[in-house]
Design goal:
This protein has 16 helices and 26 strands. The protein is an alpha/beta fold. The strands form six sheets. Strands 10, 11, 12, 13, 14, 15 and 26 form a seven-stranded mixed sheet that branches. Strands 2-1-3-4-5 form a five-stranded parallel sheet, with helices on both faces. A five-stranded parallel sheet has the order 17-24-18-19-20, covered by helices on one side. Helix 7 (153-164) links the parallel strand 6 (144-148) and strand 7 (169-173). The protein is globular, with a radius of gyration of 30 Å. The two termini are 51 Å apart. The structure holds flavin-adenine dinucleotide. The site of flavin-adenine dinucleotide has 38 residues, from helix 11, strand 11, helix 12, helix 14 and helix 16.
Protein backbone atom coordinates (compact mmCIF):
# COMPACT_ATOMS: atom_id res chain seq x y z
CA UNK A 1 0.00 0.00 0.00
CA UNK A 2 1.39 3.46 -0.90
CA UNK A 3 2.13 5.47 2.20
CA UNK A 4 -0.12 8.45 2.95
CA UNK A 5 1.45 11.79 2.10
CA UNK A 6 2.62 14.62 4.34
CA UNK A 7 2.90 17.70 2.12
CA UNK A 8 4.82 20.74 3.24
CA UNK A 9 4.73 24.05 1.35
CA UNK A 10 7.01 27.05 1.84
CA UNK A 11 8.53 29.59 -0.57
CA UNK A 12 11.65 29.89 1.59
CA UNK A 13 13.89 27.07 0.41
CA UNK A 14 15.91 26.85 3.61
CA UNK A 15 12.84 26.62 5.80
CA UNK A 16 11.34 24.09 3.37
CA UNK A 17 14.43 21.90 3.54
CA UNK A 18 14.51 22.12 7.32
CA UNK A 19 10.89 21.12 7.78
CA UNK A 20 11.18 18.36 5.24
CA UNK A 21 14.23 17.01 7.09
CA UNK A 22 12.42 17.05 10.43
CA UNK A 23 9.34 15.40 8.98
CA UNK A 24 11.36 12.64 7.36
CA UNK A 25 13.34 11.98 10.50
CA UNK A 26 10.24 11.12 12.47
CA UNK A 27 7.63 10.02 9.94
CA UNK A 28 9.42 8.53 6.89
CA UNK A 29 8.61 4.97 8.04
CA UNK A 30 4.86 5.47 7.82
CA UNK A 31 4.40 8.45 5.50
CA UNK A 32 5.72 9.84 2.25
CA UNK A 33 7.04 13.36 2.76
CA UNK A 34 6.59 15.65 -0.25
CA UNK A 35 7.40 19.34 -0.57
CA UNK A 36 6.46 22.24 -2.81
CA UNK A 37 7.89 25.77 -3.11
CA UNK A 38 4.60 27.53 -3.79
CA UNK A 39 0.85 27.14 -3.43
CA UNK A 40 0.23 26.57 -7.17
CA UNK A 41 3.00 23.92 -7.32
CA UNK A 42 1.47 22.20 -4.29
CA UNK A 43 -1.97 22.21 -5.94
CA UNK A 44 -0.46 20.49 -8.98
CA UNK A 45 0.98 17.80 -6.76
CA UNK A 46 -2.26 17.10 -4.93
CA UNK A 47 -4.25 16.96 -8.18
CA UNK A 48 -1.93 14.23 -9.40
CA UNK A 49 -2.12 12.45 -6.03
CA UNK A 50 -5.90 12.54 -6.26
CA UNK A 51 -5.96 10.95 -9.72
CA UNK A 52 -3.65 8.20 -8.44
CA UNK A 53 -5.94 7.81 -5.42
CA UNK A 54 -3.09 8.40 -2.97
CA UNK A 55 -4.07 9.55 0.52
CA UNK A 56 -2.89 12.84 2.01
CA UNK A 57 -2.75 12.88 5.81
CA UNK A 58 -1.38 16.34 6.47
CA UNK A 59 -0.70 19.73 4.92
CA UNK A 60 1.95 21.78 6.69
CA UNK A 61 1.92 25.16 4.97
CA UNK A 62 3.61 28.50 5.38
CA UNK A 63 1.10 31.34 5.67
CA UNK A 64 3.05 34.14 4.04
CA UNK A 65 3.76 33.11 0.43
CA UNK A 66 3.57 35.27 -2.72
CA UNK A 67 0.67 34.51 -5.08
CA UNK A 68 -1.27 32.14 -2.91
CA UNK A 69 -1.16 32.45 0.86
CA UNK A 70 -1.18 29.38 3.10
CA UNK A 71 -4.82 29.87 4.00
CA UNK A 72 -5.82 30.41 0.36
CA UNK A 73 -3.98 27.24 -0.62
CA UNK A 74 -5.65 25.24 2.14
CA UNK A 75 -9.09 26.48 1.10
CA UNK A 76 -8.54 24.85 -2.29
CA UNK A 77 -6.70 21.79 -1.02
CA UNK A 78 -9.50 20.74 1.34
CA UNK A 79 -11.90 20.48 -1.59
CA UNK A 80 -9.77 17.56 -2.81
CA UNK A 81 -8.70 16.22 0.57
CA UNK A 82 -11.36 17.19 3.10
CA UNK A 83 -10.05 14.71 5.69
CA UNK A 84 -6.40 15.80 5.62
CA UNK A 85 -5.13 17.59 8.71
CA UNK A 86 -4.12 21.22 8.16
CA UNK A 87 -1.34 23.04 9.95
CA UNK A 88 -0.26 26.60 9.26
CA UNK A 89 3.31 27.80 9.81
CA UNK A 90 3.47 31.43 10.82
CA UNK A 91 5.98 33.97 11.96
CA UNK A 92 5.30 35.52 15.34
CA UNK A 93 4.24 38.79 13.69
CA UNK A 94 1.52 37.03 11.64
CA UNK A 95 -0.04 35.16 14.51
CA UNK A 96 -3.15 37.29 14.76
CA UNK A 97 -3.87 37.10 11.04
CA UNK A 98 -3.38 33.33 11.13
CA UNK A 99 -5.76 32.91 14.04
CA UNK A 100 -8.35 35.04 12.26
CA UNK A 101 -8.09 32.81 9.19
CA UNK A 102 -8.32 29.55 11.07
CA UNK A 103 -12.07 29.28 10.82
CA UNK A 104 -12.17 30.06 7.11
CA UNK A 105 -9.85 27.22 6.12
CA UNK A 106 -10.76 24.90 8.98
CA UNK A 107 -7.16 24.87 10.17
CA UNK A 108 -6.40 22.30 12.87
CA UNK A 109 -3.35 24.00 14.31
CA UNK A 110 -0.81 26.74 13.74
CA UNK A 111 2.88 26.50 14.56
CA UNK A 112 5.32 29.30 15.13
CA UNK A 113 8.62 29.44 13.27
CA UNK A 114 11.20 28.37 14.26
CA UNK A 115 9.90 25.11 15.76
CA UNK A 116 13.19 23.95 17.35
CA UNK A 117 13.54 21.62 19.06
CA UNK A 118 11.03 19.60 16.99
CA UNK A 119 10.68 17.02 19.81
CA UNK A 120 8.97 19.74 21.81
CA UNK A 121 7.41 22.13 19.34
CA UNK A 122 6.58 20.07 16.29
CA UNK A 123 6.23 16.30 16.83
CA UNK A 124 3.75 16.33 19.74
CA UNK A 125 1.28 18.43 17.72
CA UNK A 126 1.70 16.38 14.56
CA UNK A 127 1.57 13.05 16.42
CA UNK A 128 -1.79 13.91 17.84
CA UNK A 129 -3.18 15.09 14.50
CA UNK A 130 -1.87 12.06 12.63
CA UNK A 131 -3.24 9.64 15.22
CA UNK A 132 -6.58 11.29 14.82
CA UNK A 133 -6.34 11.07 11.04
CA UNK A 134 -5.38 7.36 11.16
CA UNK A 135 -8.30 6.56 13.44
CA UNK A 136 -10.95 8.02 11.17
CA UNK A 137 -9.56 7.68 7.69
CA UNK A 138 -11.00 4.79 5.64
CA UNK A 139 -8.35 2.78 3.73
CA UNK A 140 -8.04 3.98 0.14
CA UNK A 141 -8.46 1.71 -2.86
CA UNK A 142 -5.05 1.60 -4.45
CA UNK A 143 -5.36 -0.62 -7.49
CA UNK A 144 -6.27 0.14 -11.07
CA UNK A 145 -9.21 2.48 -11.62
CA UNK A 146 -11.36 2.42 -14.71
CA UNK A 147 -13.35 5.51 -15.60
CA UNK A 148 -15.95 5.00 -18.28
CA UNK A 149 -19.54 4.76 -19.24
CA UNK A 150 -21.64 1.79 -18.22
CA UNK A 151 -23.06 1.54 -21.73
CA UNK A 152 -19.74 1.55 -23.55
CA UNK A 153 -18.61 -1.79 -25.05
CA UNK A 154 -14.97 -0.79 -24.56
CA UNK A 155 -15.55 -0.19 -20.83
CA UNK A 156 -17.27 -3.54 -20.52
CA UNK A 157 -14.37 -5.34 -22.23
CA UNK A 158 -11.84 -3.75 -19.90
CA UNK A 159 -13.82 -4.56 -16.75
CA UNK A 160 -14.42 -8.10 -17.94
CA UNK A 161 -10.75 -8.67 -18.78
CA UNK A 162 -9.52 -7.36 -15.42
CA UNK A 163 -12.14 -9.21 -13.40
CA UNK A 164 -11.55 -12.52 -15.12
CA UNK A 165 -7.80 -12.20 -14.68
CA UNK A 166 -8.34 -11.49 -10.97
CA UNK A 167 -6.77 -8.04 -11.26
CA UNK A 168 -8.49 -5.86 -8.62
CA UNK A 169 -9.89 -2.61 -10.02
CA UNK A 170 -12.31 0.12 -9.08
CA UNK A 171 -15.04 1.05 -11.52
CA UNK A 172 -15.92 4.73 -11.79
CA UNK A 173 -19.04 5.34 -13.87
CA UNK A 174 -18.83 8.84 -15.34
CA UNK A 175 -22.62 9.04 -15.40
CA UNK A 176 -22.65 9.03 -11.60
CA UNK A 177 -20.33 12.07 -11.33
CA UNK A 178 -23.33 14.16 -10.26
CA UNK A 179 -24.06 11.99 -7.24
CA UNK A 180 -20.81 10.22 -6.38
CA UNK A 181 -18.20 12.52 -4.85
CA UNK A 182 -15.34 10.13 -5.57
CA UNK A 183 -16.15 9.90 -9.28
CA UNK A 184 -16.59 13.66 -9.43
CA UNK A 185 -13.26 14.31 -7.77
CA UNK A 186 -11.50 12.31 -10.51
CA UNK A 187 -13.56 13.72 -13.38
CA UNK A 188 -12.92 17.31 -12.23
CA UNK A 189 -9.20 16.77 -12.48
CA UNK A 190 -9.22 15.56 -16.07
CA UNK A 191 -8.79 17.71 -19.12
CA UNK A 192 -11.73 17.97 -21.51
CA UNK A 193 -10.02 15.76 -24.10
CA UNK A 194 -9.44 13.05 -21.50
CA UNK A 195 -13.12 13.04 -20.60
CA UNK A 196 -14.02 12.44 -24.23
CA UNK A 197 -11.52 9.59 -24.76
CA UNK A 198 -13.10 7.12 -22.37
CA UNK A 199 -12.61 4.54 -21.02
CA UNK A 200 -9.60 5.78 -19.13
CA UNK A 201 -7.54 3.36 -17.08
CA UNK A 202 -5.51 4.90 -14.26
CA UNK A 203 -2.72 2.73 -12.89
CA UNK A 204 -1.34 3.09 -9.35
CA UNK A 205 1.98 4.42 -10.74
CA UNK A 206 0.14 7.32 -12.36
CA UNK A 207 0.12 5.92 -15.89
CA UNK A 208 -3.11 6.79 -17.71
CA UNK A 209 -4.21 4.82 -20.77
CA UNK A 210 -7.13 5.90 -22.90
CA UNK A 211 -9.04 3.12 -24.61
CA UNK A 212 -6.21 0.61 -24.14
CA UNK A 213 -6.11 -2.67 -26.04
CA UNK A 214 -6.30 -5.83 -23.96
CA UNK A 215 -2.62 -6.38 -24.77
CA UNK A 216 -1.67 -2.97 -23.32
CA UNK A 217 -3.87 -3.64 -20.33
CA UNK A 218 -2.24 -7.03 -19.76
CA UNK A 219 1.23 -5.54 -20.06
CA UNK A 220 0.60 -2.80 -17.52
CA UNK A 221 -1.39 -4.77 -14.99
CA UNK A 222 1.32 -7.28 -14.23
CA UNK A 223 0.26 -10.09 -16.57
CA UNK A 224 2.96 -11.83 -18.54
CA UNK A 225 2.75 -11.17 -22.27
CA UNK A 226 6.16 -12.35 -23.49
CA UNK A 227 7.50 -15.90 -23.36
CA UNK A 228 10.62 -16.32 -21.24
CA UNK A 229 12.01 -19.09 -23.49
CA UNK A 230 12.03 -19.65 -27.21
CA UNK A 231 11.50 -23.41 -26.94
CA UNK A 232 9.16 -25.55 -24.81
CA UNK A 233 8.50 -29.28 -24.61
CA UNK A 234 4.79 -28.53 -24.52
CA UNK A 235 2.83 -25.44 -25.56
CA UNK A 236 -0.86 -25.28 -24.70
CA UNK A 237 -3.21 -22.87 -26.46
CA UNK A 238 -6.24 -22.06 -24.33
CA UNK A 239 -6.47 -21.78 -20.56
CA UNK A 240 -9.92 -23.22 -19.87
CA UNK A 241 -10.35 -26.29 -17.66
CA UNK A 242 -8.90 -28.58 -20.34
CA UNK A 243 -5.80 -26.44 -20.96
CA UNK A 244 -5.23 -25.83 -17.26
CA UNK A 245 -5.45 -29.55 -16.45
CA UNK A 246 -2.97 -30.35 -19.21
CA UNK A 247 -0.66 -27.62 -17.91
CA UNK A 248 -0.73 -28.95 -14.35
CA UNK A 249 -0.12 -32.56 -15.42
CA UNK A 250 2.48 -31.64 -18.04
CA UNK A 251 4.57 -29.45 -15.74
CA UNK A 252 4.19 -31.76 -12.75
CA UNK A 253 5.61 -34.54 -14.90
CA UNK A 254 8.67 -32.53 -15.81
CA UNK A 255 7.74 -30.99 -19.17
CA UNK A 256 8.81 -27.41 -19.86
CA UNK A 257 5.30 -26.07 -20.32
CA UNK A 258 3.84 -22.79 -21.52
CA UNK A 259 0.10 -22.03 -21.58
CA UNK A 260 -1.17 -19.24 -23.82
CA UNK A 261 -4.51 -17.65 -22.97
CA UNK A 262 -5.93 -14.66 -24.83
CA UNK A 263 -8.58 -13.57 -22.31
CA UNK A 264 -8.37 -15.10 -18.86
CA UNK A 265 -7.56 -18.52 -17.43
CA UNK A 266 -10.75 -20.43 -16.66
CA UNK A 267 -12.30 -20.13 -20.11
CA UNK A 268 -16.06 -20.58 -20.24
CA UNK A 269 -15.98 -22.23 -16.83
CA UNK A 270 -14.49 -19.03 -15.44
CA UNK A 271 -17.67 -17.26 -16.48
CA UNK A 272 -19.94 -19.69 -14.70
CA UNK A 273 -21.43 -18.26 -11.52
CA UNK A 274 -21.84 -21.68 -9.90
CA UNK A 275 -20.69 -25.10 -11.05
CA UNK A 276 -22.62 -27.61 -9.02
CA UNK A 277 -21.63 -30.89 -10.65
CA UNK A 278 -17.84 -30.83 -10.38
CA UNK A 279 -16.56 -33.74 -8.32
CA UNK A 280 -15.41 -32.90 -4.81
CA UNK A 281 -17.37 -29.66 -4.33
CA UNK A 282 -20.71 -30.76 -2.85
CA UNK A 283 -22.00 -27.22 -2.44
CA UNK A 284 -20.70 -26.13 -5.85
CA UNK A 285 -18.06 -23.53 -6.60
CA UNK A 286 -17.86 -20.52 -8.84
CA UNK A 287 -15.96 -20.86 -12.09
CA UNK A 288 -13.78 -17.91 -11.04
CA UNK A 289 -12.76 -19.77 -7.91
CA UNK A 290 -12.00 -22.96 -9.83
CA UNK A 291 -9.87 -20.99 -12.29
CA UNK A 292 -7.98 -19.17 -9.54
CA UNK A 293 -7.15 -22.43 -7.75
CA UNK A 294 -6.05 -24.08 -10.99
CA UNK A 295 -3.80 -21.15 -11.90
CA UNK A 296 -2.10 -21.26 -8.49
CA UNK A 297 -1.59 -25.01 -8.90
CA UNK A 298 -0.20 -24.62 -12.44
CA UNK A 299 2.20 -21.88 -11.35
CA UNK A 300 3.36 -23.98 -8.42
CA UNK A 301 4.50 -26.65 -10.87
CA UNK A 302 6.30 -24.03 -12.95
CA UNK A 303 3.88 -23.53 -15.85
CA UNK A 304 4.53 -20.27 -17.66
CA UNK A 305 1.21 -18.54 -18.32
CA UNK A 306 1.14 -16.00 -21.11
CA UNK A 307 -1.60 -13.47 -21.68
CA UNK A 308 -1.52 -13.60 -25.49
CA UNK A 309 -3.41 -14.89 -28.50
CA UNK A 310 -2.13 -17.63 -30.80
CA UNK A 311 -2.83 -16.68 -34.41
CA UNK A 312 -1.12 -19.36 -36.52
CA UNK A 313 0.94 -22.53 -36.47
CA UNK A 314 3.86 -23.48 -38.71
CA UNK A 315 5.51 -26.87 -38.95
CA UNK A 316 9.25 -27.23 -39.28
CA UNK A 317 10.42 -30.86 -38.99
CA UNK A 318 9.89 -31.91 -35.37
CA UNK A 319 9.17 -28.31 -34.32
CA UNK A 320 5.73 -26.77 -34.05
CA UNK A 321 6.04 -22.98 -34.27
CA UNK A 322 3.34 -20.87 -32.78
CA UNK A 323 2.83 -17.27 -33.84
CA UNK A 324 1.24 -14.83 -31.40
CA UNK A 325 -0.89 -11.74 -32.10
CA UNK A 326 2.02 -9.37 -31.24
CA UNK A 327 4.20 -11.08 -33.86
CA UNK A 328 6.32 -13.08 -31.39
CA UNK A 329 6.95 -16.74 -32.19
CA UNK A 330 7.76 -19.65 -29.91
CA UNK A 331 8.54 -23.23 -30.74
CA UNK A 332 7.74 -26.53 -29.10
CA UNK A 333 7.81 -30.24 -29.75
CA UNK A 334 4.26 -30.97 -28.64
CA UNK A 335 1.34 -28.60 -29.03
CA UNK A 336 -2.01 -28.98 -27.36
CA UNK A 337 -5.05 -27.11 -28.64
CA UNK A 338 -7.61 -26.40 -25.92
CA UNK A 339 -9.34 -23.37 -27.35
CA UNK A 340 -12.87 -24.36 -26.39
CA UNK A 341 -15.86 -22.67 -27.94
CA UNK A 342 -17.31 -19.18 -28.19
CA UNK A 343 -20.87 -18.00 -27.87
CA UNK A 344 -22.92 -18.28 -31.02
CA UNK A 345 -24.04 -14.83 -32.14
CA UNK A 346 -27.72 -13.87 -32.18
CA UNK A 347 -28.55 -12.79 -35.69
CA UNK A 348 -31.16 -10.04 -35.28
CA UNK A 349 -31.14 -6.36 -36.30
CA UNK A 350 -29.57 -4.06 -33.71
CA UNK A 351 -27.86 -6.81 -31.73
CA UNK A 352 -24.36 -6.44 -33.13
CA UNK A 353 -24.46 -2.64 -32.85
CA UNK A 354 -25.53 -2.70 -29.19
CA UNK A 355 -23.27 -5.54 -28.06
CA UNK A 356 -21.40 -4.29 -25.01
CA UNK A 357 -23.91 -1.44 -24.59
CA UNK A 358 -26.61 -3.38 -22.75
CA UNK A 359 -26.29 -6.60 -24.77
CA UNK A 360 -23.75 -9.17 -23.63
CA UNK A 361 -22.79 -12.71 -24.59
CA UNK A 362 -22.53 -15.04 -21.64
CA UNK A 363 -23.35 -14.20 -18.06
CA UNK A 364 -21.04 -11.12 -17.99
CA UNK A 365 -20.86 -11.18 -14.21
CA UNK A 366 -19.07 -7.83 -14.17
CA UNK A 367 -22.37 -6.21 -15.17
CA UNK A 368 -24.41 -7.81 -12.38
CA UNK A 369 -23.99 -4.95 -9.91
CA UNK A 370 -25.21 -2.47 -12.51
CA UNK A 371 -28.45 -4.37 -12.98
CA UNK A 372 -29.50 -3.87 -9.36
CA UNK A 373 -33.25 -3.22 -9.18
CA UNK A 374 -33.63 -3.41 -12.94
CA UNK A 375 -35.21 -6.00 -15.24
CA UNK A 376 -32.74 -8.40 -16.86
CA UNK A 377 -33.50 -10.47 -19.96
CA UNK A 378 -31.70 -13.72 -20.71
CA UNK A 379 -31.91 -15.51 -24.04
CA UNK A 380 -31.35 -19.27 -23.89
CA UNK A 381 -32.64 -22.39 -22.21
CA UNK A 382 -29.54 -24.44 -21.38
CA UNK A 383 -27.66 -24.78 -18.09
CA UNK A 384 -25.55 -21.68 -18.71
CA UNK A 385 -28.70 -19.52 -19.10
CA UNK A 386 -30.25 -21.10 -16.00
CA UNK A 387 -27.15 -20.44 -13.90
CA UNK A 388 -27.03 -16.86 -15.14
CA UNK A 389 -30.70 -16.36 -14.24
CA UNK A 390 -30.03 -17.62 -10.71
CA UNK A 391 -27.04 -15.33 -10.41
CA UNK A 392 -28.77 -12.18 -11.68
CA UNK A 393 -31.85 -12.85 -9.55
CA UNK A 394 -29.75 -11.81 -6.54
CA UNK A 395 -29.32 -8.30 -7.99
CA UNK A 396 -32.05 -7.58 -10.50
CA UNK A 397 -35.66 -6.73 -9.69
CA UNK A 398 -36.85 -9.32 -12.20
CA UNK A 399 -35.11 -11.80 -14.48
CA UNK A 400 -36.98 -12.82 -17.62
CA UNK A 401 -35.72 -15.90 -19.46
CA UNK A 402 -36.68 -15.97 -23.12
CA UNK A 403 -36.68 -19.60 -24.26
CA UNK A 404 -37.22 -20.58 -27.88
CA UNK A 405 -38.63 -24.05 -27.06
CA UNK A 406 -41.69 -24.89 -25.04
CA UNK A 407 -39.89 -26.64 -22.16
CA UNK A 408 -36.53 -26.69 -20.39
CA UNK A 409 -36.53 -30.42 -19.73
CA UNK A 410 -34.41 -31.40 -22.73
CA UNK A 411 -31.82 -28.66 -22.41
CA UNK A 412 -31.33 -28.03 -18.68
CA UNK A 413 -30.38 -30.10 -15.62
CA UNK A 414 -33.28 -30.95 -13.34
CA UNK A 415 -31.68 -29.34 -10.26
CA UNK A 416 -31.50 -25.99 -12.06
CA UNK A 417 -35.08 -26.17 -13.33
CA UNK A 418 -36.15 -26.72 -9.72
CA UNK A 419 -34.11 -23.73 -8.49
CA UNK A 420 -35.53 -21.47 -11.19
CA UNK A 421 -39.09 -22.43 -10.32
CA UNK A 422 -38.47 -21.72 -6.65
CA UNK A 423 -37.04 -18.23 -7.27
CA UNK A 424 -39.85 -15.71 -7.20
CA UNK A 425 -38.25 -12.95 -9.27
CA UNK A 426 -37.44 -15.26 -12.21
CA UNK A 427 -39.99 -15.49 -14.99
CA UNK A 428 -39.70 -17.95 -17.88
CA UNK A 429 -41.26 -17.10 -21.23
CA UNK A 430 -41.41 -20.12 -23.54
CA UNK A 431 -41.81 -20.02 -27.36
CA UNK A 432 -40.09 -16.61 -27.32
CA UNK A 433 -37.28 -15.26 -29.51
CA UNK A 434 -35.64 -11.84 -29.63
CA UNK A 435 -36.05 -10.58 -33.21
CA UNK A 436 -34.74 -7.00 -32.86
CA UNK A 437 -32.85 -4.78 -30.43
CA UNK A 438 -33.62 -1.07 -30.20
CA UNK A 439 -31.71 1.90 -28.85
CA UNK A 440 -29.48 4.77 -29.97
CA UNK A 441 -26.29 4.44 -27.94
CA UNK A 442 -27.48 1.70 -25.61
CA UNK A 443 -30.12 -0.95 -25.41
CA UNK A 444 -33.53 0.54 -24.70
CA UNK A 445 -36.00 -2.12 -25.86
CA UNK A 446 -36.27 -5.53 -27.52
CA UNK A 447 -38.81 -6.99 -29.91
CA UNK A 448 -39.89 -10.42 -28.72
CA UNK A 449 -41.66 -12.81 -31.08
CA UNK A 450 -44.05 -15.32 -29.57
CA UNK A 451 -43.78 -18.23 -31.99
CA UNK A 452 -47.14 -19.64 -30.95
CA UNK A 453 -49.26 -16.55 -31.57
CA UNK A 454 -46.86 -15.00 -34.09
CA UNK A 455 -47.20 -11.72 -32.21
CA UNK A 456 -44.26 -9.35 -31.74
CA UNK A 457 -44.11 -7.26 -28.56
CA UNK A 458 -41.71 -4.39 -27.98
CA UNK A 459 -40.53 -4.59 -24.38
CA UNK A 460 -38.41 -1.94 -22.60
CA UNK A 461 -35.04 -3.52 -21.72
CA UNK A 462 -31.64 -2.24 -20.55
CA UNK A 463 -29.81 -5.55 -20.15
CA UNK A 464 -29.92 -8.57 -22.40
CA UNK A 465 -27.63 -11.56 -21.87
CA UNK A 466 -27.42 -14.04 -24.74
CA UNK A 467 -26.51 -17.69 -24.20
CA UNK A 468 -27.60 -19.63 -27.25
CA UNK A 469 -24.98 -22.30 -27.73
CA UNK A 470 -21.46 -22.16 -28.90
CA UNK A 471 -19.15 -22.71 -31.86
CA UNK A 472 -15.40 -23.40 -32.05
CA UNK A 473 -13.06 -20.69 -33.23
CA UNK A 474 -10.57 -22.76 -35.20
CA UNK A 475 -10.22 -20.90 -38.50
CA UNK A 476 -6.64 -20.02 -37.60
CA UNK A 477 -5.89 -23.77 -37.68
CA UNK A 478 -7.83 -24.53 -40.86
CA UNK A 479 -4.85 -25.31 -43.09
CA UNK A 480 -3.06 -27.35 -40.49
CA UNK A 481 -5.37 -29.86 -38.81
CA UNK A 482 -8.49 -31.67 -40.02
CA UNK A 483 -11.81 -30.34 -38.74
CA UNK A 484 -15.44 -31.37 -39.10
CA UNK A 485 -17.97 -29.29 -41.04
CA UNK A 486 -18.71 -27.14 -37.96
CA UNK A 487 -15.03 -26.44 -37.26
CA UNK A 488 -14.48 -28.89 -34.37
CA UNK A 489 -11.07 -30.58 -34.54
CA UNK A 490 -10.89 -34.28 -35.36
CA UNK A 491 -8.69 -36.58 -33.31
CA UNK A 492 -7.63 -40.21 -32.79
CA UNK A 493 -9.97 -42.86 -34.23
CA UNK A 494 -12.13 -40.20 -35.97
CA UNK A 495 -9.24 -39.59 -38.37
CA UNK A 496 -8.92 -43.16 -39.59
CA UNK A 497 -11.53 -43.75 -42.29
CA UNK A 498 -11.87 -47.12 -44.04
CA UNK A 499 -8.58 -48.11 -42.47
CA UNK A 500 -6.81 -45.08 -44.03
CA UNK A 501 -4.79 -42.69 -41.96
CA UNK A 502 -5.19 -38.91 -42.48
CA UNK A 503 -3.67 -37.22 -45.51
CA UNK A 504 0.02 -36.47 -45.04
CA UNK A 505 0.35 -38.74 -42.01
CA UNK A 506 3.79 -40.38 -42.27
CA UNK A 507 4.20 -42.33 -39.05
CA UNK A 508 3.79 -46.10 -38.94
CA UNK A 509 1.12 -45.84 -36.26
CA UNK A 510 -2.40 -44.45 -36.12
CA UNK A 511 -3.01 -41.04 -34.53
CA UNK A 512 -3.17 -41.52 -30.77
CA UNK A 513 -6.32 -40.79 -28.84
CA UNK A 514 -6.61 -36.96 -28.64
CA UNK A 515 -3.95 -36.53 -31.36
CA UNK A 516 -4.93 -34.47 -34.43
CA UNK A 517 -4.10 -35.16 -38.08
CA UNK A 518 -0.63 -33.70 -37.42
CA UNK A 519 1.66 -35.82 -35.20
CA UNK A 520 2.51 -34.00 -32.00
CA UNK A 521 -0.49 -31.67 -32.13
CA UNK A 522 -3.15 -32.74 -29.65
CA UNK A 523 -6.66 -31.47 -28.98
CA UNK A 524 -8.71 -31.55 -25.77
CA UNK A 525 -11.94 -30.18 -24.36
CA UNK A 526 -14.90 -28.51 -26.04
CA UNK A 527 -13.03 -27.73 -29.26
CA UNK A 528 -12.58 -31.45 -29.98
CA UNK A 529 -15.07 -33.12 -32.30
CA UNK A 530 -17.34 -35.37 -30.27
CA UNK A 531 -16.35 -33.99 -26.85
CA UNK A 532 -18.72 -33.96 -23.90
CA UNK A 533 -19.04 -30.29 -23.06
CA UNK A 534 -18.46 -30.35 -19.34
CA UNK A 535 -15.78 -29.09 -16.98
CA UNK A 536 -14.94 -32.57 -15.70
CA UNK A 537 -14.56 -34.05 -19.17
CA UNK A 538 -12.29 -31.17 -20.25
CA UNK A 539 -10.18 -31.69 -17.16
CA UNK A 540 -10.10 -35.44 -17.80
CA UNK A 541 -9.01 -35.03 -21.41
CA UNK A 542 -6.39 -32.44 -20.50
CA UNK A 543 -4.77 -34.77 -18.01
CA UNK A 544 -5.04 -37.92 -20.14
CA UNK A 545 -3.50 -36.14 -23.14
CA UNK A 546 -0.23 -35.74 -21.27
CA UNK A 547 0.46 -39.48 -21.38
CA UNK A 548 0.14 -39.36 -25.21
CA UNK A 549 2.40 -36.30 -25.24
CA UNK A 550 5.03 -38.32 -23.35
CA UNK A 551 4.72 -41.21 -25.82
CA UNK A 552 5.12 -38.76 -28.71
CA UNK A 553 8.12 -36.99 -27.14
CA UNK A 554 9.89 -40.29 -26.48
CA UNK A 555 10.11 -40.83 -30.26
CA UNK A 556 10.58 -37.28 -31.51
CA UNK A 557 14.03 -36.48 -32.89
C1 LIG B 1 -22.01 -19.99 -18.25
C2 LIG B 1 -21.54 -21.40 -18.33
C3 LIG B 1 -21.86 -22.29 -17.33
C4 LIG B 1 -21.39 -23.63 -17.37
N1 LIG B 1 -21.69 -24.46 -16.34
C5 LIG B 1 -21.18 -25.71 -16.31
C6 LIG B 1 -21.41 -26.57 -15.20
O1 LIG B 1 -22.10 -26.21 -14.25
N2 LIG B 1 -20.86 -27.81 -15.24
C7 LIG B 1 -20.09 -28.24 -16.27
O2 LIG B 1 -19.58 -29.35 -16.21
N3 LIG B 1 -19.87 -27.46 -17.35
C8 LIG B 1 -20.40 -26.21 -17.40
N4 LIG B 1 -20.18 -25.39 -18.49
C9 LIG B 1 -19.40 -25.92 -19.63
C10 LIG B 1 -17.89 -25.84 -19.32
O3 LIG B 1 -17.58 -24.57 -18.81
C11 LIG B 1 -17.09 -26.13 -20.58
O4 LIG B 1 -17.40 -27.40 -21.04
C12 LIG B 1 -15.58 -26.05 -20.29
O5 LIG B 1 -15.21 -24.76 -19.84
C13 LIG B 1 -14.77 -26.38 -21.54
O6 LIG B 1 -13.42 -26.26 -21.22
P1 LIG B 1 -12.30 -26.04 -22.36
O7 LIG B 1 -11.04 -25.89 -21.62
O8 LIG B 1 -12.42 -27.10 -23.37
O9 LIG B 1 -12.67 -24.70 -23.12
P2 LIG B 1 -13.02 -23.22 -22.65
O10 LIG B 1 -13.52 -23.22 -21.27
O11 LIG B 1 -13.91 -22.69 -23.72
O12 LIG B 1 -11.63 -22.45 -22.67
C14 LIG B 1 -10.97 -22.19 -23.87
C15 LIG B 1 -10.01 -21.03 -23.65
O13 LIG B 1 -9.20 -20.87 -24.80
C16 LIG B 1 -8.95 -19.50 -25.01
N5 LIG B 1 -8.60 -19.31 -26.42
C17 LIG B 1 -9.37 -19.54 -27.52
N6 LIG B 1 -8.69 -19.28 -28.62
C18 LIG B 1 -7.44 -18.88 -28.25
C19 LIG B 1 -6.28 -18.47 -28.96
N7 LIG B 1 -6.24 -18.45 -30.28
N8 LIG B 1 -5.18 -18.10 -28.24
C20 LIG B 1 -5.19 -18.13 -26.88
N9 LIG B 1 -6.28 -18.51 -26.16
C21 LIG B 1 -7.39 -18.89 -26.84
C22 LIG B 1 -10.27 -18.85 -24.65
O14 LIG B 1 -10.08 -17.48 -24.31
C23 LIG B 1 -10.70 -19.69 -23.46
O15 LIG B 1 -10.28 -19.12 -22.23
C24 LIG B 1 -20.63 -24.07 -18.48
C25 LIG B 1 -20.33 -23.18 -19.52
C26 LIG B 1 -20.77 -21.86 -19.45
C27 LIG B 1 -20.43 -20.92 -20.56
Amino acid sequence: MAKPVLLTVDDDREVLRAIERDLRRKYAGDYRVLRAESGPAALEIIRELKVRNNAVALFLVDQRMPGLSGVEFLEQAIKLYPDAKRVLLTAYADTDAAIAAINEAGINHYLLKPWDPPEENLYPVLDELLEDWQATFPPQFEGIRVLGNRWSPASHNIKDFLARNHVPYQWLDIETAGTDAEVRSVVDLLEEKEKRDLPLVIFPNGLRLHQPTLGELAQNSGLKTRAAETFYDLAIVGGGPAGLAAAVYGASEGLRTVMIEREAPGGQAGMSSRIENYLGFPTGLSGGDLARRAVVQARRFGVEILSAEATSIRLDGPYRLLKLRDGAELSCHALLVATGVEWRKLDAPGVERLTGAGIYYGAAMTEAMSTRDEDVFIVGGANSAGQAAMYFSKYARRVVMLVRGSSLAASMSQYLIKQLKETTNIQIEFDSSVVEAHGQDRLEAISVLCTKSNEVNIVPANSLFIMIGAAPNTNWLADIVERDERGFILSGPDLVRDGKRPKGWQLDRDPALLETSVPGIFVVGDVRHGSVKRVASGVGEGSVAISFVHQYLSKVV
